[in-house]
Structure formats: C-alpha cells, structure tokens
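Amino Acid Chain and Its Fold in Token Form
===========================================
What this section holds: a protein sequence and its matching fold, both as plain text.
Structure line: whole-number tokens from a learned vocabulary of local backbone shapes, matched to residues.
Purpose: to set a sequence beside its fold so the mapping can be learned.
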Amino acid sequence: MIDFSLLDKTIHEKGRLSIMTLLASRVDPWPFQDLKSQLEMSDGNLITHLRTLEKAEFIAGEKQTGDGRPQTLYILTDSGRAAFVAYLGVLEQILGLRR
C-alpha cells in the first residue's frame, strides 16, 4: 500500500512543485525574473513560495550585483534534490497502481 503521508507537503503545492521542477531541470541557477516569466507568477506569489522552500532548506538564493540591476539566482540544495527525488518516487508508486 502507498503511504500518501510521504508526499512532502512543502513540495506538493502547485507553485512550489513547479519551482522545484524547474530548479531540478538544470544545474545552472535560475534568475528570479526567469522563474517569474516561466511560471507566470506575480512577484509576491513567487517570493512567498521561494521563501517557503528556502525555509525548508530545499533551495538557496544568492543575490548578485554587477552590471545593471541586482538579481537573485536560485538553485536546488542537496537536501532539496533528495526531497524532490523522494517525492517523485511516491508519485511513481501512485502511477504504478494504474498498471
């Protein structure tokens, strides 16, 4: 039987799942503006989800200054990647029920 309690509630929310999926899709960090554009979220909504993921230590943000506007880059942490892989494992078990 599948233990649905293993679905991480921090990741499971649609916005945070979307962020985690994008961050897991590549090694390079994602700039805030690129995440916002890709996910079609407002600044406030995206920031709220990013803060939740940072508090859980699933992602890390680094502010960069240089030429032009400062920007914040986000990456998946090792613990975030492990949590995401575990989350996907539970989803695979759920999908396996259909077979």
